[in-house]
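cache lookup: miss for this entity combination. No prior model stored, computing from scratch. Input as submitted by user K.M.:
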Amino acid sequence: MQVSVEICVIPMGTDASVSRYVAECQRVLEAAGLQPQMHAYGTNVEGDWETVFAAVKRCHEAVHEAGAPRIFTTLKVGTRTDKQQTLQDKVEAVNKLRRQ
Amino acid sequence: MQVSVEICVIPMGTDASVSRYVAECQRVLEAAGLQPQMHAYGTNVEGDWETVFAAVKRCHEAVHEAGAPRIFTTLKVGTRTDKQQTLQDKVEAVNKLRRQ
Amino acid sequence: MQVSVEICVIPMGTDASVSRYVAECQRVLEAAGLQPQMHAYGTNVEGDWETVFAAVKRCHEAVHEAGAPRIFTTLKVGTRTDKQQTLQDKVEAVNKLRRQ
Amino acid sequence: MQVSVEICVIPMGTDASVSRYVAECQRVLEAAGLQPQMHAYGTNVEGDWETVFAAVKRCHEAVHEAGAPRIFTTLKVGTRTDKQQTLQDKVEAVNKLRRQ
């Protein structure tokens, strides 16, 4: 099952600046062979369900190892059976309508 | 790794009333040996990471099998290394402060 | 416009234990005349759009005043034009199916 | 109070393809003078609290007017008192660490 996911990892019990923890997650997602698309409120990835969620788990492990005692993560998880659709397809579908 | 998760499954491309899909998820979560705590905006579960996320995947499979061509799920995922804390502990910690 | 909302306020740059900040939000939501339904991953409220979102803003103000330098909040926001539906109706619709 | 927000509007009771509803929201956010940064799982905006949340309400109104009987929206809402930080600053802080 193919899945597209947005992951947003919030370390708790740390400084207010959390970029170094987010950078750890980027490394994990890239090491998993995913091509993370980071934006200001999370990172979008797509791939096989098992691959993606194994990487999500490793993100939690990496952020704890980096010193965060608590993590609150939000995920958006999308699957569909009616057609294949990439992350890029989603953005392009809206942009195409905007150009009309 | 123990994890506490809120899952909120939104079927897309279906009728506006989605309670029968949510009921499918409740069955899946119970069959996984989790004790789902449903509320008006999702269902809270806790347990071993692998058990919980295997159940999340089966929720997607069950909701597609029930007829939804597309699913948008939001998850909140909590882990901590500083102490053990159950879902009930979280609620009780706030209620205790309110009673003071 | 009537709206049902789940609010989950995460203080950042604080201790890992955040119950006292959540308790502040409960006070704000009650003071707004809402009847907050707290669970382990947020609090559900319903009411007029303006009333609910004014209370959300006051939650942010109260949590900053309580000492959190940064706040990350997740909201789920539901509106519908096909019928009126309370938070309790949502839960009951699923439970009714489960009892059949 | 300055706020940065991610908005992700999910129409329910519609076709599985929802790009035309998302395009409506983009128009609303632009008309509000915000500079929406769309990605595959939502749109990021920043500005004055009142301006941003008035636009969120108009998104709901516009998507209902476009024919969706039910809407489920997720928002991430960020405020901080320790420093000013734009959406672009957030991304850049992580990228800077990655380049080291």
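stored under new cache key. Chain C touches chain A through 13 residues (CB under 8 Å).
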